[in-house]
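Folding Problem: From Residues to Backbone Shape
Fields: amino acid sequence; protein backbone structure tokens
RECORD BEGINS BELOW THIS LINE
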Amino acid sequence: MQIQLADFVKAKPEYDELAGILRACVHCGFCNATCPTYQVLGNELDGPRGRIYLMKQALEGQAVSRLTQQHLDLCLSCRACETTCPSGVRYGRLLDISRPMIDAVVGRSLPERIVRGLITTIFPYRQRFAALMAAARLVKPALPPALKQKIPPKQAVIPWPKARHTRKMLLLSGCVQNILAPEIDAASARVLDKLGVSLIPVPGSGCCGALNYHLADPRRALALARHNIDACRPLLEQGAEAIVMTASGCGVMAKDYGTLLQADPHYAEPAARFSVLVKDLGEVLIAEDLSVFKADHRKIAFQSPCTLQHGQRLSGVVETVLKTIGYRLVAVPDEHLCCGSAGVYALLQPVLANRLRDNKLQALETHQPDIIATANIGCLSHLRSTGNQKIVHWIELLH
């Protein structure tokens, strides 16, 4: 693709990266075949190829409008297009760099600024999010049924095994998962304890920054990334062998710290070292002897989150772990398509998100599984919002 980026882009540290991504696109359109929004809406501008043209126009200094912004807002950032692309176009990176530039030109309406501001100042912070959920549970009886389903009951605090092993791995405390489903991290700690590994929560760690980053707030996102790097550093120096991510959405963000902070003179090297040590929970378990675990008779349908199969390129890893233990996995049609959660996409684009969710649930139920398993808190919450309670995080199946 021939490009002539504007002077305001040339002044940015990402200039060479942006130019390389745009030049890699050969307009083949293979990406549209696996794009969830293009499949539903059928509009070229709601597929990756059309959105790349829109971003190219903006980065070349051509006029952009609210319509341009809307087409980009409808993107799930699922990165299915990257898995399909024969030219290796890093579409997700292009979108994340372009969005703040376009927002700066087009702006946001007051209601949008309020909603996005509330999300980015509450969700990434555990205490604030816990307070929000406590308030939501108080008024839950008075809410419409559609909203009631989105508010899970409060979960009991689940004890962790004591840190007693020589082998130690770290766990970032995160944000919403810790409040919505604390049983996931507790189950992960118990599973690793059986394998001779102590899972250590990192004191002072927090949100990975993905939510802010994908809502065109890179400044705060990178501040959260630096905070996590600093929080982990002492424990890594003491010999912790990995940073385990139990939510695939957080995992893909943490693995990208090295790229996101590559221009930071103080954090470029620490971020690169940090990212190398980040492992999805499935990556950790597939390398261990799993004979201590036994499967039961239930059939499992695994919903592979986009952040796992497209973002981290770990298709089949969790499935292999479950099969090794002895679970029967059933086929899921169109398993590459997004469930519609996509961080807070389900809050900002509820109509399309719910349509994608319903399509995903229909696919998952095709072979009548006993349990539906996933690997990301966002997918788990979104799929459960229909009232379907047979959806669990896959680590809860190991016992």
User: Anything to note?
Assistant: The domain at 7-106 is CATH 1.10.1060.10 (Fumarate Reductase Iron-sulfur Protein; Chain B, domain 2). Residues 33 and 39 are 7 Å apart (CA to CA). The mean pLDDT is 94.
